[in-house]
Amino acid sequence: MITLANQAPKLIGELEAHCAMGPDEPVMTARTISFLRTRELPFSAANPEGHITASAWILHPGSGRVLLTHHAKLDAWFQLGGHLDDDASVFEGALREAREESGLGSIRPLSAAIFDVDVHMIPARGAMPAHPHHDIRYLLTADPDEPLVLSAETKSLEWVTLEEAARLNPSESIGRMIRKSYSLLASSNVSE
Prior knowledge:
Elements: H1 8-17, H2 25-38, E1 51-60, E2 65-71, E3 76-78, E4 80-83, H3 90-102, E5 108-122, E6 131-141, E7 154-161, H4 162-168, H5 172-187
Parallel strand pairs: 1-6
Antiparallel strand pairs: 1-2, 1-4, 2-3, 2-7, 5-6
Helix pairs in contact: 1-2, 4-5
């Protein structure tokens, strides 16, 4: 049976094959590989040293819009995603999180390859100290006309232009995915 517990070697191979962009992403990718090689429970949300998370950058190539969520706990706009559960892989976790957080049934991958890697700190909450999320992001798409369903973790869900996404969250983390999206759309490497 394939479980997250035996996925570290496979994920390390995918991260080594990933073409990281800019000055920061290669460093974060190397840091994530090292984390996977040196930690016993890299996928466990209970690990106070941090853990692997899965995210979905949901892009609609026809309109050039992305789906963002206004995260209730962090009170900021992000891509959809979160902790891994009993998923068979990080990719499956990203698909599950995207469906759970949006209610969309039309979500499908534009690619099964890693789209982006980011390491960021999550503030302390309750008994869990501040810790890093090693976020593995995948490029997905969905029908923007399908009704969105808010989850308990979400204040709002919006399909926004790439320009609006940059205004809603001006972080380098989001900015890097926006730049990658512009490159993909310009080179016609994605289709609906």
